[in-house]
């Protein structure tokens, strides 16, 4: 299961990885693009192909795992919606989540806001733009993550200025990427995910019901 477990496992702990592995073949997935926490089950799928003498093994693309937005969360949690950014989040949702995110001054290690900037914002925009008052140093564009970290550690960049800039960047990305994903899926012109949930009554009802489900562990 990708975790440190005792030798005695419950039936659920044995069945769960098998079900995850079965998902890959049920979906006929050629590429498994998942977080590092899913790497072991992806390897299990490839080993299963060896047992079946199957030539076409799923390709594994394991990417960096983003932490949750709250202190001490190693990864985003489905059971805590406030710890994650979702594609259907409204602009207000994103602003609220980033505003409440763990982001201590001068601290880089374990800072989820800086992780988002490093792994999402910089690869997308190639820079990070901060708007602030003249008293706080004025507007500034950071052209590298290292430059941003230097200012942050020296407290030349404060969380109160960093957070709104991060939220603004994420909202821009969400509005664009949602449209691209839908365009690739249906192969024709369509509206962004946010607009779809905003303008379609059926979609609004579906999203409301999904969010109302209680997640148990």
Tally of helical runs: 8
CATH class type of the largest domain: Mainly Alpha
Class by alpha and beta content: mainly alpha
Low-pLDDT stretches are none
Q: Would you tell me the overall average pLDDT? A: 85
* Main sheet characteristics: 2 strands, parallel
Number of strands: 4
Molecular structure report:
The protein is mostly helical and 217 residues long. The protein has two domains: 11-63, no CATH class; 81-212, Orthogonal Bundle (Tyrosyl-Transfer RNA Synthetase), CATH 1.10.240. The chain is 50% helix and 7% strand. The chain is built from eight helices and four strands, in the order αβαβααββαααα. Strands 1-2 form a two-stranded parallel sheet. Helix 3 (91-99) packs antiparallel against helix 6 (159-186), helix 4 packs across helix 6 (159-186) and helix 7 packs across helix 8. The longest helix has 28 residues, at 159-186. The chain is globular, with a radius of gyration of 20 Å. The two termini are 14 Å apart. The mean pLDDT is 85.
């Amino acid at each position: 299961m990708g975790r440190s477990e005792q030798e005695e496992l419950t039936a659920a702990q044995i069945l769960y990885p098998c079900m995850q592995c079965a998902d890959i073949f049920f979906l006929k997935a050629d590429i498994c693009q998942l977080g590092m926490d899913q790497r072991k089950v992806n390897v299990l799928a490839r080993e299963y192909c060896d047992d079946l003498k199957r030539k076409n093994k799923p390709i594994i693309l394991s990417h960096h795992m983003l932490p949750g937005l709250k202190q001490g969360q190693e990864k985003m949690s489905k059971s805590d919606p406030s710890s994650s950014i979702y594609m259907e989040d409204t602009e207000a949702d994103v602003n609220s989540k980033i505003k409440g995110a763990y982001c201590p001054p001068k601290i880089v290690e374990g800072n989820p806001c800086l992780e988002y900037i490093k792994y999402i914002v910089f690869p997308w925009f190639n820079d990070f733009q901060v708007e602030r008052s003249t008293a706080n140093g004025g507007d500034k564009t950071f052209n590298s993550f290292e430059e941003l970290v230097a200012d942050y550690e020296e407290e030349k960049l404060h969380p109160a200025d960093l957070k709104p800039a991060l939220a603004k960047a994420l909202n821009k990305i969400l509005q664009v990427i949602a449209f691209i994903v839908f365009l690739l899926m249906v192969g024709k012109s369509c509206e962004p995910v946010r607009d779809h949930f905003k303008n379609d009554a059926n979609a609004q009802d579906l999203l409301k019901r999904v969010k109302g489900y209680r997640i148990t562990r």
